[in-house]
Amino acid sequence: MTNSGSSDARDRDTAGRARNARPRDGLGRPLPYGAEGVPRQPEGVLRAPWQTVGEAQALLAAGRPFHAHEVFEDAWKSGPREERPLWRGLAQLAVGLTHAARGNAVGGARLLRRGAGAVEEWAAGRGEDRPYGLDLPGLTRWARELAGRVERGSTPVDARAEAPRLGPAEGTRPGP
């Protein structure tokens, strides 16, 4: 990726699509060009649902919810149409935790509740609350409880300490 340095120039990938090449910190905040950031999640990766859950769980456990959000976003954009609301809701939960960890209590609480509602609505509509080993009822409880604490608190939360467990056996696939 390149940047010409002018204020109206945009970073572009090899195909000419706009891509922000600035390094980012562990919570996805842009750093100055040339600074050392954390490795970025590659965009547009097609993963099996179990791989998405496992990779997102590892990123959440490492205190990198912004990056977990990007993994969920890939599933949301590339997955089957009927699953897109689920993955979008999970991405909202991860970015809600990101905002809460950055100290944005209003945005964090709002996104945590929005994601919880989306996940809950998807589960109710499908009659399925544990797809791909995900614990959707547990995630909605976690998100709403955290949203309340974020609103009452005055400091950013610790993303690693507050990371949810996505399911009882994250990253594992039960059965044959």
List keywords for this structure.
176 residues, globular, mainly alpha, DUF309, TTHA0068_sf, disordered N terminus
Structure, briefly:
This protein is an all-alpha fold.
Describe this structure in words.
The chain has 176 residues and is mostly helical. Helix content is 51%, strand content 0%. The protein contains 6 helices and no strands. α3 runs antiparallel to α4. The longest helix has 22 residues. The N terminus and C terminus are likely disordered. It comes from Streptomyces nogalater. This is DUF309 domain-containing protein. InterPro entries: DUF309, TTHA0068_sf.
Mean pLDDT: 87
Shape designation: globular
Strand content: under 5%
SS class: mainly alpha
Region (Disordered): 1-41, 150-176
Protein name: DUF309 domain-containing protein
InterPro entries: DUF309, TTHA0068_sf
Biased composition (Basic and acidic residues): 8-27
What is the fold's blueprint, element by element?
Layout: H1 49-61, H2 65-78, H3 84-102, H4 105-126, H5 136-152, H6 159-162
Helix pairs in contact: 1-2, 2-3, 3-4, 4-5
